[in-house]
């Protein structure tokens, strides 16, 4: 029987995600500005610094979880060990990405290499952290609770960063007399938040994960590790290609990520050319971030009324519908923001429940293949995100070109209508796509997961006997 969830986990599981989100927010919101306006790189060099690590990350993102499953567990456990092993190294590597050491070419190489090395070192503990959810939870409700707490802390980080990000960089730049060093210190502090948050998770989850045995003969230990802990390449691939719910879930998740990325990339255009009031953009970001926090907090209650699959599908369709309403109200700025507020609420729910659905596919994979590859499957959550990040630029370029956008052009009714479609209608299509794929392709219910879990436990008990 699993150890009951502690009150600390029920409340504070996710502070590591808060730290992680603060760390990556520097790159998400400030990297391009830092490279062009603070570090002074030309646009061609900026493209290389940003694109090369991102491409590497997208290609190798499925490997991060496989590493966890394939490597012999360290002394603190198969998953928990990663929360404390690599984060200290990541702090140094992230700081190097926001420094400028030597001439432009040398500085660019340092940034690119440090970014490439940092990606697996911070993505692997991220995967391990998410993979802890099915290990910690004993019921579907506990999975959703932990997923929603993680969503709460992640969304809360966006509220924090909107207030502290740029001001801290400016402050430290002023104090040190070096704008570049201001950003170096900012990124270092945010990375240290990730390190500290994951250490808190490490301590809170003590006693929940089985540790490698020290008291059995070496050969016995090797055999047990091979059978129970380590997964072969064949086991990993079978858990992907013999797992239809996982494949449909990743396809659906891509629609959600594309919606999120298009909104973040296009919101500035709306307030510049449609609302013609950039002062409202911080208000929009604050309101929608708070709405996502509320959605994550409401998730356990909604899940009790329905179930994880149904809640996810309803949330995807509801979020898409509210963004369609936002498209219709696009010229009425405050009504537009209100429609986005409700849409973001359901996106907050969706973000929480999708994690629980991924954990259900772990059960399906083990039931189907006989091998638990939790790290690999939870690591695949990264794949739709990375593909969405890569294709965002293409989607935005095509969308802006299709409406005849030219930088600093005078807003026309046609331009405003086009930008409203980019910000509201395209993400709405992505979210409706997510709901449709889950409705038609993801048929893994909580009842089925419970039956599979009981069968897996019976198999294990039979093997022991």
From TrEMBL:
<feature type="transmembrane region" description="Helical">
    <location>
        <begin position="335"/>
        <end position="358"/>
    </location>
</feature>
<feature type="transmembrane region" description="Helical">
    <location>
        <begin position="43"/>
        <end position="67"/>
    </location>
</feature>
<dbReference type="GO" id="GO:0015293">
    <property type="term" value="F:symporter activity"/>
</dbReference>
<keyword id="KW-0812">Transmembrane</keyword>
<dbReference type="InterPro" id="IPR036259">
    <property type="entry name" value="MFS_trans_sf"/>
</dbReference>
<keyword id="KW-1133">Transmembrane helix</keyword>
<protein>
    <submittedName>
        <fullName>Putative symporter YjmB</fullName>
    </submittedName>
</protein>
<feature type="transmembrane region" description="Helical">
    <location>
        <begin position="387"/>
        <end position="407"/>
    </location>
</feature>
<feature type="transmembrane region" description="Helical">
    <location>
        <begin position="254"/>
        <end position="273"/>
    </location>
</feature>
<feature type="transmembrane region" description="Helical">
    <location>
        <begin position="108"/>
        <end position="136"/>
    </location>
</feature>
<feature type="transmembrane region" description="Helical">
    <location>
        <begin position="156"/>
        <end position="174"/>
    </location>
</feature>
<dbReference type="InterPro" id="IPR039672">
    <property type="entry name" value="MFS_2"/>
</dbReference>
<feature type="transmembrane region" description="Helical">
    <location>
        <begin position="279"/>
        <end position="298"/>
    </location>
</feature>
<feature type="transmembrane region" description="Helical">
    <location>
        <begin position="310"/>
        <end position="329"/>
    </location>
</feature>
<keyword id="KW-0472">Membrane</keyword>
<feature type="transmembrane region" description="Helical">
    <location>
        <begin position="419"/>
        <end position="442"/>
    </location>
</feature>
<feature type="transmembrane region" description="Helical">
    <location>
        <begin position="180"/>
        <end position="200"/>
    </location>
</feature>
<feature type="transmembrane region" description="Helical">
    <location>
        <begin position="79"/>
        <end position="96"/>
    </location>
</feature>
<dbReference type="GO" id="GO:0008643">
    <property type="term" value="P:carbohydrate transport"/>
</dbReference>
<dbReference type="GO" id="GO:0005886">
    <property type="term" value="C:plasma membrane"/>
</dbReference>
<feature type="transmembrane region" description="Helical">
    <location>
        <begin position="12"/>
        <end position="31"/>
    </location>
</feature>
<dbReference type="Pfam" id="PF13347">
    <property type="entry name" value="MFS_2"/>
</dbReference>
């Amino acid at each position: 029987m699993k150890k009951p969830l502690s009150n600390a986990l029920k409340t504070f599981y996710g502070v590591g995600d808060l730290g992680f989100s603060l760390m990556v927010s520097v790159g998400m919101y400030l990297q391009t500005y830092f490279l062009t306006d603070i570090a002074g790189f030309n646009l061609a060099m900026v493209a290389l610094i940003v694109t090369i690590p991102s491409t590497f990350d997208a290609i190798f993102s499925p490997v991060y979880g496989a590493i966890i499953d394939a490597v012999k567990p360290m002394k603190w456990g198969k998953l928990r060990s990663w929360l404390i092993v690599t984060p200290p190294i990541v702090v140094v590597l992230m700081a190097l990405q926001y420094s400028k050491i030597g001439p432009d070419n040398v500085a660019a190489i340092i940034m690119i290499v440090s970014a490439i090395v940092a990606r697996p070192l911070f993505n692997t503990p991220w995967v391990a952290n998410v993979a802890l959810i099915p290990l910690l939870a004993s019921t579907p409700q506990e999975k959703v609770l932990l997923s929603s707490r993680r969503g709460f802390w992640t969304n809360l980080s966006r509220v924090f960063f909107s207030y502290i990000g740029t001001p801290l960089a400016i402050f430290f730049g002023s104090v040190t007399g070096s704008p570049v060093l201001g950003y170096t210190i900012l990124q270092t502090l945010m990375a240290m938040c990730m390190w500290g948050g994951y250490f808190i998770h490490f301590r809170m989850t003590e006693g929940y994960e089985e540790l490698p045995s020290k008291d059995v003969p070496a050969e016995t230990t090797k055999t047990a590790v091979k059978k129970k802990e380590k997964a072969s390449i064949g086991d990993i691939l079978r858990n992907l290609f013999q797992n239809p719910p996982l494949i449909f879930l990743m396809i659906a998740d891509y629609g959600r990520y594309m919606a999120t990325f298009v909104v973040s990339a296009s919101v500035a255009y709306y307030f510049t050319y449609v609302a013609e009031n950039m002062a409202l953009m911080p208000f929009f970001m604050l309101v929608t971030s708070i709405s996502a926090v509320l959605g994550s907090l409401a998730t356990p209650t909604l899940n009790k009324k329905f179930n994880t699959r149904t809640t996810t599908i309803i949330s995807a369709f509801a979020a898409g519908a509210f963004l369609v309403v936002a498209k219709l109200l696009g010229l009425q700025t405050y009504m537009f923001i209100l429609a986005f507020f409700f849409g973001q609420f359901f996106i907050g729910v969706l973000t929480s429940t999708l994690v629980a659905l991924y954990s259900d596919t772990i059960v399906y994979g083990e039931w189907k293949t006989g091998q638990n590859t939790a790290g690999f499957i939870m690591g695949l959550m990264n794949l739709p995100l990375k593909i969405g990040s890569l294709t965002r630029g293409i989607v935005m370029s095509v969308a802006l070109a299709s409406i005849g956008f030219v930088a600093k052009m005078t807003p026309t009714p046609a331009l405003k209508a086009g930008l409203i479609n980019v910000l509201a209608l395209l993400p709405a299509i992505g979210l409706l796509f997510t709901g449709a794929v889950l409705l038609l392709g993801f048929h893994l219910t909580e009842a089925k997961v419970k039956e599979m879990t009981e069968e897996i436990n019976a198999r294990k008990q039979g093997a022991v006997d």
